[in-house]
Amino acid sequence: MILSGSASQSLAATLADELNEPLGFVEYQSFPDGELLASAPDFEAHRAIVVASTVSSDAHLELLQLQDAAREWGAEEVVTVLPYMGYSRQDKAFDHGQPISARAVARAISSGTDRVFTVNPHEESVCDFFDVPAKSIDAAGRLADPLPDDLIDPVFLSPDEGALDIAETVRNVYGDGVTDYFEKKRLSGTEVEMTPSDTDVTGRDVVITDDIIATGSTMSEAVSLLHGRDVGRVFVTCVHPMLAGNARLKLANAGVEAVYGTDTIERAVSQVSVAPNVANRL
Ligand code: R5P
């Protein structure tokens, strides 16, 4: 039986269809003091699949509660699916006295589960922080699905070298085009300095791919640079469309043709589901 965190209900429902497995009823309550209570009043199965993108501290809490509720019902196996793993980008202590937040949350999640799957983590090595077997699922290929069939001489760009594999995957699934990447230097949490790629983009359609759009600073800077170079249409696509704050406005102002993401984070731009990719691994 699938138990969903409140932020992952659509993906959980799609996954239930894919697996032909029941979707458990979950109640989400909060108390006046701010404490939460996610409960599964009708659980009945040997295996619980808890699906919860940890997009907020509350989502983290719900996940831990649902794991525990499944154990209370006597589930023999608890599998945890983190479509998006919050805090995964804090995968090292960047200064003295800082925690390795990704490790801290991974340890907490491990305590209530037998195994973990997470979709396109920022770094694969984050899986090593769990105390139970943890594996990543690559859903980047899905990002080719919503792209128009008529891209002109397409260029698939990543905003930095680290995300080039995503651009290559999307290009390979799309079946046409070249790949390249920008050089990126992060100046602060909301500011980045980008250097354009060498590929000539004049008159060509460009698809910029990344693992996540958070504040939108990286993507909007990349889009602006391209428009200074007489580019064709610019599409922006990512696995995790966090789109925090005014990210969507930044992208619109920068001049994107369309923004696409998956349902690891449920947003208006979540055009494709990672459910088939997750189902294949369960
Ligand atoms: C960083 O290396 C990631 O791949 C993303 O490029 C980055 O986290 C996006 O963040 P933002 O949207 O805030 O620029």
Description:
- The chain is of the alpha/beta class and 282 residues long.
- The protein folds into 2 domains: 2-139 and 275-279, 3-Layer(aba) Sandwich (Rossmann fold); 141-263, 3-Layer(aba) Sandwich (Rossmann fold), CATH 3.40.50.
- The protein is 26% helix and 25% strand.
- It is built from 7 helices and 15 strands.
- It has helices at 9-19, 57-72, 101-110, 164-174, 217-227, 247-254, 275-279; strands spanning 2-4, 27-30, 36-39, 47-51, 77-82, 115-119, 134-137, 155-158, 178-181, 183-186, 192-195, 206-213, 234-241, 258-262, 270-272.
- A 6-stranded parallel β-sheet has the order 9-8-12-13-14-15, sandwiched between helices. Strands 1-4-5-6-7 form a 5-stranded parallel β-sheet, with helices on both faces.
- A hairpin with a 5-residue loop joins β10 (183-186) and β11.
- α5 packs parallel to α6.
- The protein is globular, with a radius of gyration of 20 Å.
- The structure holds ribose-5-phosphate.
- Ribose-5-phosphate binds next to β12 and α5.
> Mind telling me the CATH class of the largest domain?
Alpha Beta
Q: Report the span from N to C terminus.
A: 12 Å
What share of the residues does DSSP label as strand, in percent?
25-35%
CATH topology of the largest domain: Rossmann fold
CATH architecture of the largest domain: 3-Layer(aba) Sandwich
**Strand line-up of the largest beta sheet:** 9-8-12-13-14-15
SS summary, helix count: 7
What portion of residues is helical?
A: 25-40%
Mean pLDDT, to the nearest integer, reads 95
Question: Radius of gyration, Cα only, in angstroms?
Answer: 20 Å
Give unreliable regions as ranges: none
> Which shape, going by the Cα principal axes?
globular
Assembly state of the chains shown: single chain
Supply the number of structural domains: 2
**Helices and strands, in N-to-C order?**
EHEEEHEHEEEHEEEEHEHEEH
What are the distinct ligands in this entry?
ribose-5-phosphate
| Biggest β-sheet description | 6 strands, parallel
Q: What would you call the structural class?
A: alpha/beta
Total beta-strand segments = 15
